[in-house]
Backbone:
């Protein structure tokens, strides 16, 4: 069943293109920032995290960029695939693992 | 290994009733957190348990409570249900309390009529 908001911002990309999902966070004291992916009918799935003392971190096909000056976080997905279609949430935390504050989410739709 | 399991998956209650939701974390995980997800408020942190102790609590009224057992399984309880409590309740487990990689269960969909 549905588990996310009805009026999420949506990013539509062509299969094979790169995707960039943006997030503005609110707490300048947050030390950890995490991206989660939520597919329909499932719970969120951890993608990647970054600590506030870093500005970039790479994973498999994903890169997270952190700009603390403007409190902005982005998730870049390379060579987007249909399986990447989901809602993506950024989350922030004052300490590792604790009390995640989630953003509103962005729906990514991948066109074949 | 098995993922996080939550029971029941769906639940319908009426206003004023109480409800108990259950979460079994991944084997070996000792940290369990609960979140509420609604279309209007999004994902909101409820509380976190580690070694049977509540470590953190979100901004929810006292009607929301939880506990963790010695085998790390956790329950959350909502008393005097209100219409606004209708939501997807998600449980997440992690190896340690300072582990950013939390593993979420599929959630329990609670509908309050």
Residues:
């Amino acid at each position: 069943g549905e588990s996310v908001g009805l009026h999420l911002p949506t990013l539509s990309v062509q299969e094979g293109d790169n995707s960039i999902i943006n997030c503005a966070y609110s707490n300048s004291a947050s030390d950890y920032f995490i991206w989660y992916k939520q597919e329909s009918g499932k719970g969120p799935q951890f993608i990647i995290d970054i600590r506030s003392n870093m500005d970039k971190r790479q994973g498999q096909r994903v890169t997270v960029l952190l700009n603390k000056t403007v409190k902005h976080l982005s998730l870049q997905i390379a060579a987007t695939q249909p399986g990447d279609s989901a809602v993506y949430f950024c989350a922030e935390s004052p300490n590792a693992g604790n009390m995640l504050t989630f953003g509103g989410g962005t729906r990514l739709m991948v066109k074949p | 290994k098995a993922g996080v399991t939550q029971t029941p998956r769906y639940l319908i209650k009426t206003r004023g009733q109480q409800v108990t939701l259950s979460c079994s974390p991944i084997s070996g995980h000792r940290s369990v957190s609960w979140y509420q997800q609604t279309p209007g408020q999004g994902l909101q942190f409820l509380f976190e348990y580690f070694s049977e102790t509540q470590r953190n609590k979100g901004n929810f009224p006292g009607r929301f409570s939880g506990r963790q057992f010695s085998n790390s399984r956790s329950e959350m309880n909502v008393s005097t249900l209100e219409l606004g409590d209708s939501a997807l309740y998600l449980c997440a487990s992690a190896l340690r309390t300072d582990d950013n990689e939390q593993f979420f269960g599929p959630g329990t969909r609670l509908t309050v009529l």
